[in-house]
Amino acid sequence: MGTIKPLTERNEEALSRLLAIWESAVRKTHAFLSERDILEIKPEVLRGILTVEHVFCYCDDIGAPQGFIAVANQKIEMLFVDDSVRGQGIGKQLLRYAVDVLGVRFVDVNEQNTQGVGFYRHMGFSTVRRSEHDVQGRPFPLLHLELTFKQGNGTRSAMKNEITTLCFDADDTLWSDMPFYTEADKRFCALMSPYADTDTASREQYRTASANMPLYGVGGKSFTLSMMETALRLSGGNLPSAVVAEIIETGKQYMDHPVQVLPGVIDVLEALRGRFSLIIATKGDLVDQERKLEKSGLTPYFRHVEIMSDKTQQGYARMLRRLGVQPEQFLMTGNSVKSDIEPVLSLGGYAVHVPFHETWIHEKAEPPRENDRFFSIESIRELVDLPVLLKTKEKS
């Protein structure tokens, strides 16, 4: 009789054994991978084993691992069983342990791994969406699965509807920001008219800002520096000091623009505070976002404000851990599918998309087609009836 044990020491011997299990399983079930693919992926698997939050092994009577599962944020990152012991129920035991003990609800599977897809569907998982490429951009489609349970004659997502924490994006969700950015970009393009047409200047400014994001992040200061860098490039380094001063002033005006709370926001916050814990998660420069929040007058509604350099699944997960909130208790509302919707859904939370009439090109993405934890509304005012909205979604 085997036992399931945590991987307590990630030493060379243990890592070598788990890599051998992975390779044995992949060579049997992933016929679509070439030898070169396997060699390229192997170091990624090693990094995953070293860094993922939970790794549990199924060990035989003498303690030798025969299979393992790696889990982070309610999601299975890896589940592999040595080919020599396939068909003995080891994968099922590891999966059931992860569901019962670690609260697993999600897994991504290569679509071409038909045995794996069949296994997870047999174990109660259903496809919620599909990606054309794997996480490294390779041409191996992924199916994103979520654990489901039976109810009556049908199956539905395991939606618990125990949401306790409502999180709001700030820029273009609570208050207007993009129109001021657009106006600043137009002013910059006008300043660049001796050197480039409007489309070229705007495109080059965005290209510079995108390239600078890993170093500067996003926000008014980053925007100003990127305008300056673009102007120097477009002018061939011959930028008059008067134009430099105009660019700096354009950046300052953008950063100090008036904060206009959007219609319906205060009605929603008044209706929901006391019924839910309200927080903000916004992306940008710390000083910029603090200034806008202060100007908005909305601070008293929120118990916590998170200013993030970027909105990623990992960033949201860290925030929820600090707040002691489970993903299934968390609902995010925002205008950006890329920053407000996709990371939260991937984490296992709920998300509400409220479109704004202007969207920065960097934030553009298609909303998910089918996901029981995703809502799309036309106006933030609809959140006044959030409990009704949740019940309606659950019934559907």
| Helix segment tally | 13
CATH architecture of the largest domain: 3-Layer(aba) Sandwich
| CATH homologous superfamily descriptor of the largest domain | Gcn5-related N-acetyltransferase (GNAT)
Task: State the end-to-end distance.
Answer: 44 Å
* CATH-defined topology of the largest domain: Aminopeptidase
Backbone structural class: alpha/beta
Range of helix content: 40-55%
- Write the element-wise H/E pattern from the N-terminal end onward: EHHEEEHEHEEEEHHHHHEHEHEHEEH
Q: What is the typical, i.e. mean, pLDDT?
A: 89
Largest sheet: 8 strands, mixed
- Rg, rounded, reads 25 Å
Oligomeric description of these chains: single chain
The unreliable regions are 150-161
Summarize the structure.
Helices cover 43% and strands 20% of the residues. The protein is α/β, with parallel strands linked by helices. The strands form 2 sheets. Strands 1, 2, 3, 4, 5, 6, 7 and 8 form an 8-stranded mixed beta sheet that branches. A 6-stranded parallel beta sheet has the order 11-10-9-12-13-14, with helices on both faces.
Structure description:
The chain is an alpha/beta fold. The chain has 3 domains: 155 residues, Gcn5-related N-acetyltransferase (GNAT) (Aminopeptidase); 148 residues, Rossmann fold (3-Layer(aba) Sandwich), CATH 3.40.50.1000; 78 residues, Putative phosphatase, domain 2 (DNA polymerase, domain 1), CATH 1.10.150.240. The protein has 13 helices and 14 strands. The strands form 2 sheets. Strands 1, 2, 3, 4, 5, 6, 7 and 8 form an 8-stranded mixed β-sheet that branches. Helix 10 links the parallel strand 10 and strand 11. Helix 6 crosses helix 7. The protein starts with a strand and ends with a helix.
